[in-house]
Specification:
heterodimer; A: alpha/beta; eight-stranded mixed beta sheet; four-stranded antiparallel beta sheet; globular; B: alpha/beta; Rossmann fold; six-stranded mixed beta sheet; about 30% helix; binds adenosine-5'-diphosphate; binds iron/sulfur cluster; binds magnesium ion; membrane (chain A)
Chain lengths: ~325, ~325
Amino acid sequence: MSALLELSGVSVAIGNVALVDRISLRVEAGRILGLVGESGSGKSLTAMAAMGLLPLIGGRVTEGEVRFAGRDMAGMSDAERRALRGRRIGFVTQNPMTALDPVQRIGAQVDIVSRLHLRLTKAAARARTLDLLTQLRIPDAAAVVDAYPHQLSGGMKQRIVIAMALAGDPELIIADEPTTALDVTVQAQIIQILGALVRDRGLALLLITHDMGVIAQICDRVAVLYSGRLVEEGPVGPIFANPAHPYTAALIDCIPQEGMAKRSLRGIPGAVPSALAFPPGCRFHPRCRRATETCRDDAPPLLPLGAGSVACHHAGPP
Amino acid sequence: MSEPLIRTEGLTKRFRSGGGLFSRERVMTAVRDVTLEIARGEVLGVVGESGCGKSTLARLILRLIETTEGSVVFDGTELTALPPTALRAMRKRMAMVFQDPYSSLDPRFTLAEVLAEPFRVQGHDLPNDAVPAMLAAVGLPEALATSYPHQLSGGQRQRVGIARALALHPDLVVLDEPTASLDVSIQAQIIALLADLRDKMGLTYLFISHDLGLVRYFCDRIVVMYLGSVVEVLPNTQAAPRHPYTDALMRSGFAPDPARRREIVPLGGEIPSPFALPAGCAFATRCAFASDRCRRERPPLSQGLSHPVACFHPL
Ligand SMILES: Nc1ncnc2c1ncn2[C@@H]1O[C@H](COP(=O)(O)OP(=O)(O)O)[C@@H](O)[C@H]1O
Ligand SMILES: Nc1ncnc2c1ncn2[C@@H]1O[C@H](COP(=O)(O)OP(=O)(O)O)[C@@H](O)[C@H]1O
Ligand code: SF4
Ligand SMILES: [Mg+2]
Ligand SMILES: [Mg+2]
């Protein structure tokens, strides 16, 4: 099946600092790809690259290709790329307040997306907005459209941002840590909504999170990033059952679970390196229990493994 | 049975807001009638969603803010009525670690200065080897003593926050979401460190978190709060929840195991405003089991069941 969004060997730099190193990802219609890794691993930059938004923060793709529905985004005009965002790609950020205008009523903010991208009339746009809010189970949508963002709870605001992302009737949603700032009961609600959108409408979803529990709950495949590099990618079943990369295994082992013996959580030693001082060889080697001489000298290539791929000199069960 | 280290009785805190020229004064109850005990050497967890009153409860227990009603007894001494000098002496025995290692450390001070601060405040001389020993105790290299907070990673900063809290060998340490702004990989390191330090120093912890999974892993007993009130006290980490809210919290977390996916049944209803709490059970607006009685009457924290639960229809 052809991918809706495909990154092939994409590298990203800001100024002359290389931050993302040859990442390849595919997101298909009706599927959820999870992108996971500690903070600073390059998840948001990868999302910005996928949306052609890097110039906003002074960054650029230095290598590789980003294709949407088969077309290379580098070959598009600015106007074409702008039309793609909102119309065919919806975006949901971690903090709903960065996406919402505090001094504009909710209804107007959602309406504008379908007026702009679907050329709907004012009345048709409002009808669409009300319909979307109702589908997202926002109680009393007719009153909410007249409210200002500060009058709504965090979970409600995030549902409004999702409504804005959906208003242009996109094929792909990119959600960058959409539940990180929310309480767990609200997180469950948002995750359920995102899962249902993919199931019922055949949307493609690129879901960025640092929560391995969320990945296990709704993603079809997962891509694990470490220090700007893809270290493992594949279907969630085999990856959670038998993570081949020591970093993937360590990330899963960091989560406190039901029935876990006290004192069994130890975490991953050390910290994510700064982009100004990535270690040579495998970037994970200073924190890795399996590291050998080879790991310190040579970067492990990303090689196929089962239905996925892994980049480790000592890949396999611990 | 020995005297608990901490005992609170009917602890209540109300905040007033507005009351200026143009707004009517409004009163909200951030902590409502909380009675609890913390045994010596225990790790007591307090869990609940943001705004439920966890930090306010912590501040009341340390008497960093004044109580509206109720009392706190620390090792047999009533704190709520203690005069300032006696309170300062008592403060040596309690410490707090905050969520945000970025804002809780003064950026102008080196780590050596940060760690010397508690001695200065209490008017104690700083023993020569104190700073290196404190750094070593939290797993930081001695060479960091001359660094500034911004030169450290988030995990290292939180280690400094812990070292500072332990400087004067307190009995009680209140940990207010100490890992909430850290990655899980670093959270696990910090939790392991806290467990080691507790064993070595015989500490008592009040551990606050919004993460029930984490609290169940780390704590001995767990207090569950909702909108300022204690709704359940889980006597151990295995106990099944009996309050519908605790149950909902448990069902909201996802196990990192695709084989254990489950249908998500989100809580419906809206959270009432803390300025206008309903007459009955505060959870009734979101509870699947709510009856007329729940909406009318406030369920007390009942002692008759397997463990304390404030619900008319416990699971
Ligand atoms: N605007 C920027 N300027 C300079 N460096 C940046 C910028 N945005 C991100 N970075 C750096 O790029 C790396 C990856 O960042 P990011 O993609 O935001 O990580 P993640 O989303 O995984 O937490 C980090 O080391 C971060 O410091
Ligand atoms: N100094 C204050 N003045 C007014 N309201 C406050 C103050 N401190 C906390 N509150 C309110 O009390 C409630 C409980 O807050 P807090 O104890 O910080 O909750 P938590 O730590 O569980 O997130 C919240 O609604 C908060 O807005
Ligand atoms: S390549 Fe070596 S250092 Fe890197 S993850 Fe694999 S074993 Fe660890
Ligand atoms: Mg990010
Ligand atoms: Mg708090």
